Input
Amino acid sequence: MHEQSEVRTYLFTDIEGSARMWEEDPERMRPALARHDAIARSAVEKHGGVVVKMTGDGLHAAFEDPLDALRATLELQQALADPESTAGVALNVRCGLHAGADERRDKDFYGTAVNRAARIMSAAHGGQVLLSQAVAAMLGERLPGGVALRDLGSVRLRDLALAERVFQLVHPSLRRDFPALRSLEATPNNLPQQLTSFIGREAVLAHIKELLAQSRLLTLFGVGGIGKTRLSMQVAADGIDNFPDGVWLVELATLRDPQLVPQAVASALGVKEAAGRPVLEALLKFLRNRHLLLILDNCEHLLQACADLARQALQAGAGSKVLASSREPLRVAGETTYQVPALPESEAASLFIDRASAAKPGFQANREIAPVIANVCARLDGIPLAIELAAARVRTLPVQKIAARLDDRFRLLTRGDQSALPRQQTLRALIDWSYELLTDDERAVFRRLAVFAGGFTLEAAEAVCAFGAIDTSHVFEHVTQLAEKSLVVIEAAGERYRLLETVRQYAHERLNESHEADDTRTRHLAFYLALAETARPELAGPKQGEWLTRLDFERENLLSAHAWCDQVKGGAEPGLKLVYLLRPYWLNRGLLGLGQRVTAEALARSGAEARNFDRCRGLFVAGQLSFFMGRYPEARQYLEESLAIARDIGDKRRVAEALQPLGMAHLGQGDPRGARRYLEEALVLAQERGDQRELAAAINAIAQLHRMEGDLDKAEPLYEEVLRLARELGDRESIAIGLLNLAMVVISRASGDRAREMLLAVLAIAEEIGSKPAGQSVMEVSAGLAVLSTDWAEAARFYGAAEAQSAQTGLHRDPADEAFLEPLLTKAQAALGTEPFAAAEDAGRGLSYEAAIAEARAWLERARST
Output
């Protein structure tokens, strides 16, 4: 959460030369640094400051009053002046002070003022204290005795922003004279001044610096607008001391002729060609004995020329390095590549707030709009340019309106910095640039990939994209090239790919402009229907967990395929097939509401009204899901129609399938006689057919009826038989159901130890296959077991956790389970008292699913060991 109030003064410190000292004498540095940290923390806290964080060999602190910050810094430097105070190791500490807006998120300070303070510190030398003009002005005439401020003039700091007027703290006890400040002016360079601040990315900067230290050619690559150029310049500015002959930016974006690349580099370096000799010859001669950093910016449209130039430049002399930015690597021997990541959530929000504040002075991210900003940044994939374009819109639109219009982001996100390159002024132009650099076949595959939602596998891409001029054998190469060109993202495991949502919307527009949109979407539907058909038998077998996880990854694609059935000719049949095949997935993942919605949509689709096999199965799915959600009248309506169709077409398997939930729905409506009639018929049919899975379900339903009637002697052996059949089938979910039902029986018989072992076994299965319904049931049965153990508060807590989960999944207890739990909870409430019971229940409702499962396991294991 973002908060903003008054001005704070920020202090940053750092030990000069600490890396070398650690390498040379780590044993002495450990106690010295410990003493340094204690002295620094004491000085800050003594003067009313707050240590925000320790930063390696320094600290970041914040003060309400700049005078307190000054006094703390003076005391820190005076204490460190004596090497004996730091275990005999002389530590030269440099300090920087700057004042600005108090901006925080998650108890950490951030923003322009914080970054500026760090840059001011980095310009200082060991033993030197630098203050910004803002701090000097706030101190005014309040300087302590013996303290003076020495005006060092304006310097360009390494954040590349406007020059800063800095002052040095002067005191008789401190060193007075130092070399020139570590500013950009100290080393030759042509780095342009930036009009906006550099936000976040400390970890990324540190990593890039490490890579550049180890490599002579480093290429930063990534999608357009991700911030490659700004990162390149900031890395160069931070490391400028390592290049005595300077850091030199060569901007290639406007260059079209590859043959002019050497001339562009020579112009940046001020190299003149000799009469009648090629400019490359003069350039390589110039580089021979130089120690400089060459920044080749925006290489993607001149890849071969940039690769050749980089290779020859590095061969010309051992002292120079090349830092390139491109939408794909240069592919030169010895090249190190780094794919620039999107901004993480907190940094993306900080960037939005900073740019919005500049666009509309007085803009503040309060508690109401902070989540909206986070949503905008997430939907823009953390792409800095897109975020900046969105933030600029706060001049005319509230943040909520910006979020609402992101579905048409290419029209919304225009009118960027008019001084920037044309392709950086609108979001569409940004991606147009990348699209135009593709081959015709790459463009075809790229736009066809737009049909995938939530990512895709190579197998899926080959099935969907290979038609027309695109051969299946070439899809992998095209996808690889698109990934190399930063238009496709390879997931961490390397087995899935995806398009950033902004890129996907662009590709979607391109697909709609083509004549291949319908064919592509129909192929997408066919692939995911086939996947669901392959998965269906595996969802009730030993590979259940593996296939459930695979469908997790493909959920958005499955929903997209379902949606296309509304538009494709003859879509009713595949639509009904799809919802039937996915029924076990919705149940296992606790997505009953979603499953019910898409099934109802499939049944209402034009062409789905025919009383045939597919409609029969679809009605069964809708009815079973309605039953599990406790919607018994609705369940009966669906299941009675399904049963009627099954009888009409003579499909005994579908008859048996519909009879079981229909009987339970009657039981839920207080009609045990009707329930028994349906359930006994289902059992007879299952026995006739000899299908073990069908038989197990029928036996389990009969056992539920017996348990609800209180006849545990009849129910228990039936549950044992269900468990035996489930184990033979290797169906982990059915094993869990059998154990849960048996646990309720043994609790009713007051056998807590047996129930505890069963519940622990169910927990193991629930975690193995990711079954939220099984986990929810463990909480419910644990509540009953807690009553048996007279652990009243825990019973209420587990019940509350189960109810919270039920609200999320839509899964309600069936009549037999309700009959088991209700009297036990009544007993617990009477023993504990109404208000304490309610308080414990509310505490349970506040637990996340994961936390509740962990508590249940700990409680069950603790009780087992006592």
